[in-house]
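Quick one, tokens below:
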């Protein structure tokens, strides 16, 4: 099965069912025809199977429809993270060398800057209201295109999408994925989140990220409704949830925090019965809040990556808050010696090592785009090295203890930031917290907590004194894990999908 054929067959199965809602409402029959038109338009522009089409687009219907259209002609959809710097996006464009680039109003400024720095000459299309110099109108070309299915044979080994990693540790890396990998990931997501025919979900996670694509494609698998949301804002999200009677949410923990802070989670629970999260760990406090307010039938913690969509799934996130659960349906995992050249023999329960995933998994990529250096670092003997530290407990459940590079060695003891963060997040004065190791003459690295207070008007010295006293007397932390320093800040730097950018905290503090 391929993604484009999956859409067409769903349109035959449920032609009049609502497929997409938001700025444009379409049935499955209408969506199938629109994606046929976009595919035909691409072929008329000279795009051929195996080419790349890059998108500087908001999280919109245009982005969803274009991605699906490209699946019908074997073209590698290349959605770009428009929150990256122009220089990073210029690198991505040079690296992908796309035949066509599509831009909209939201991404216009950064797209112009990036394209000016990239020595490529693609066909430029504009999908917005304010035309870009030298660009042709996306919608005009689509309206003039044929609505019949394109005469192109696409096989499961053909390209589907290339996602660029965020580049928080260096240049962005292109992650090319096949039709087979994308279909497998989408089917696994449906099964692991226990979706049924006719689900509806909020398309709020960016489609330049694997979470956003999974929200989109899982709905096509079950003939569900994808409710477009170009920019996530909690009050607007709640209104969409209520209006469209959304049944399933797949968001990052920070988005759930934002929904909780509106005080309207009980309203969300009127229609939402299935919750899933990914991208970062969820604190036990937030787990408890969601359980109490929404009482979901399904509450999934999904742990994975762009390279291998599913590593592990905890099917009831509140059962063991922080646990990543068991390997995914199509996945094989091990925790191994993190040393370069180390064995791939699994470590004993409760022993921390690096989490590795089999590249024989149906959801796995097979190597980075034009990056043999990255392949050499991450791929060894058919195992993908995630760079994450973790351990299996005595029950066989996986726990993610942080990044290999994030582990703090303080006074010769290993301290995992996630464990300390989970404890500190329980203090009533703490809204958010990130823990890192800062250079220290005595300890080597000092466990340091960057704290966002629940009340931003609180005196920082008073807050620090409270936290220090609490850590000494009440917090369930071993003495060597207690923060030796606290920093009170207004916000925690995060990636677009909610991952804490610890290196930025370290760099900014040491400047």
């Amino acid at each position: 099965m391929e993604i484009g054929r999956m859409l067409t067959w769903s349109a035959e199965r449920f032609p009049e069912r609502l497929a997409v809602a938001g700025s444009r409402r379409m049935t499955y029959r209408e969506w199938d025809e629109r994606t046929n038109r976009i595919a035909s338009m691409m072929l008329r522009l000279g795009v051929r199977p195996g080419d790349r089409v890059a998108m500087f687009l908001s999280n919109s219907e245009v982005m969803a429809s274009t991605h699906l259209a490209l699946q019908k002609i074997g073209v590698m959809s290349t959605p770009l993270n428009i929150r990256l710097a122009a220089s990073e996006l210029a690198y991505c464009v040079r690296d992908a060398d796309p035949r066509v680039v599509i831009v909209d109003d939201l991404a216009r400024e950064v797209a112009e800057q990036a394209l000016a720095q990239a020595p490529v000459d693609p066909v430029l299309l504009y999908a917005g209201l304010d035309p870009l110099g030298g660009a042709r109108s996306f919608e005009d070309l689509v309206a003039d295109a044929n609505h019949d299915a394109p005469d192109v044979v696409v096989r499961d080994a053909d390209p589907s999408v290339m996602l660029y990693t965020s580049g928080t540790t260096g240049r962005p890396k292109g992650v090319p994925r096949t039709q087979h990998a994308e279909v497998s990931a989408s089917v696994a997501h449906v099964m692991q989140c226990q979706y049924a025919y006719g689900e509806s979900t909020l398309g709020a996670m960016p489609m330049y990220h694997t979470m956003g694509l999974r929200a989109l494609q899982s709905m096509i698998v079950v003939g569900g409704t994808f409710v477009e949301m170009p920019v996530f804002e909690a009050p607007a999200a709640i209104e969409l949830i209520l209006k469209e009677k959304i049944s399933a949410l797949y968001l990052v923990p920070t988005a759930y925090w934002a929904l909780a802070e509106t005080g309207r989670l009980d309203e969300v629970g009127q229609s939402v019965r299935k919750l899933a999260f990914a991208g970062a760990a969820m604190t036990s406090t937030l787990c408890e809040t969601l359980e109490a307010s929404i009482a979901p039938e399904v509450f999934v913690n999904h742990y994975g990556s762009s390279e291998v969509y599913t590593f592990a799934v905890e099917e009831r996130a509140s059962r063991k808050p922080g646990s990543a659960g068991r390997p995914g349906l199509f996945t094989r995992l091990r925790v191994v010696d993190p040393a370069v050249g180390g064995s791939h023999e699994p470590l004993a329960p409760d022993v921390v090592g690096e989490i590795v995933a089999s590249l024989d998994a149906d959801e796995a990529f097979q190597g980075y785009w034009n990056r043999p250096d990255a392949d050499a670092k991450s791929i060894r003997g058919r195992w993908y090295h995630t760079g994450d530290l973790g351990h299996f407990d005595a029950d066989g459940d996986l726990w993610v203890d942080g990044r290999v590079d994030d582990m703090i060695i303080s006074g010769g003891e290993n301290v995992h930031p996630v464990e300390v963060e989970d404890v500190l997040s329980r203090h009533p004065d703490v809204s958010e917290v990130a823990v890192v190791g800062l250079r220290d003459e005595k300890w080597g690295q000092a466990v340091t907590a960057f704290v966002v207070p629940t009340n931003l008007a609180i005196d920082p010295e008073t807050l620090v004194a409270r936290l220090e006293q609490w850590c000494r007397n009440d917090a369930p932390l071993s003495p060597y894990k207690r923060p030796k320093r606290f920093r009170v800040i207004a916000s925690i730097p995060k990636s677009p999908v909610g991952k804490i950018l610890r290196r930025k905290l370290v760099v900014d503090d040491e400047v």
